[in-house]
From TrEMBL:
Keyword Repressor: no
This protein's UniProt keywords: ATP-binding, Nucleotide-binding
Keyword ATP-binding set for record: yes
Species this protein is from: mine drainage metagenome
Pfam families in alphabetical order: ABC_tran (PF00005)
Protein name: ABC transporter, ATP-binding protein
Domain ABC transporter: 5-96
GO MF terms, alphabetically ordered: ATP binding; ATP hydrolysis activity; transmembrane transporter activity
Listed InterPro entries: ABC_transporter-like_ATP-bd (IPR003439), ABC_transpr_LolD-like (IPR015854), P-loop_NTPase (IPR027417)
Gene Ontology CC: plasma membrane
Amino acid sequence: DTYALRGVDLRIDQGEFVAVSGPSGCGKSTLMAVLGLLTGFEQGRYRLAGRDVGTLSGDARATVRNQHIGFVFQSFNLIGDLSVLDNVGLPLKFRGGVSRAERA
């Protein structure tokens, strides 16, 4: 059997910025998909902000992702009709409860 992630034990404290690097095929994309709650996993557990998020529904994962997780990709895509500021603030519109002034 081949495992993308095996024996991974990772702790990232609130406010920490983390870079994931490694050779092709080592599991970086799989790790990011699991950490970002984009895909599930078969074994182990995942705690985020003190909460077990491994068994959440898709909608609940989306809510947690919106409130707690941010990605910066090597190649990012901006919406051409929006300013950089509006592109950065766009995810906050989906979060709700954030005023226009706070997004700016």
